[in-house]
Amino acid sequence: MELERKLELFRKKAKEAGLKVTPQRIAIYRELASRSDHPSAEELFESLKDKIEGISLTTVYRTLSSLEKAGLVVRVPTLKDKVHYDAKLEPHSHFVCVKCGAIYDIDIPLKQPSAKLSEEGFEVLNCTLLCYGTCRNCSSTVTNGQK
Fold first, then answer.
1. Which domains does the chain have, with CATH numbers?
2. Which among 39, 88, 103, 143 counts the fewest CB atoms within 10 Å?
3. DSSP string of 72-83?
4. Helix, strand, coil percent values for the chain (each to nearest 5)
């Protein structure tokens, strides 16, 4: 049900942004919105290539670019070269594992930094925190003496 609500909102916002709501755009957004692993364009393409006839990696890249420009998806910065995407637009933060590359949503209150910046005359539109480190899975591997 949550995914259907996101798709309805996506259709509405895409039209407001002047984007055509094509079957390929809906499929790419649906795939992204249904995942919590913050996939790259390549990962989305791999998931969709057998589901959507004639889809190409170029189409996925172009679609993600147009959706990002329209404010319908966001990039998640990482230390690696690949760009990852997120359909969750509500302010939230991320943890990026430097060993395996996994990206996790984290719930950390960001009111204090926003309030402090506002006090100093900055207009805060969005505040996010990006943490880098070792995830639970990679940390437990190191803890158990494995590499």
1. 2-86 (1.10.10.10), 93-143 (3.30.1490.190)
2. 143
3. SSEEE--SSSS-
4. 45, 15, 45
Q: Where are the beta strands (DSSP E) in 36-139?
A: 74-76, 84-86, 93-97, 103-106, 130-133
The closest of 86, 103, 107 to 95, measured between CA atoms, is 103
Structure tokens at 27: 């499929």
Q: What is the pLDDT of residue 144?
A: 54
Residue 146 confidence (pLDDT): 52
Query: How many Cβ atoms sit within 10 Å of the Cβ of residue 112?
Result: 9
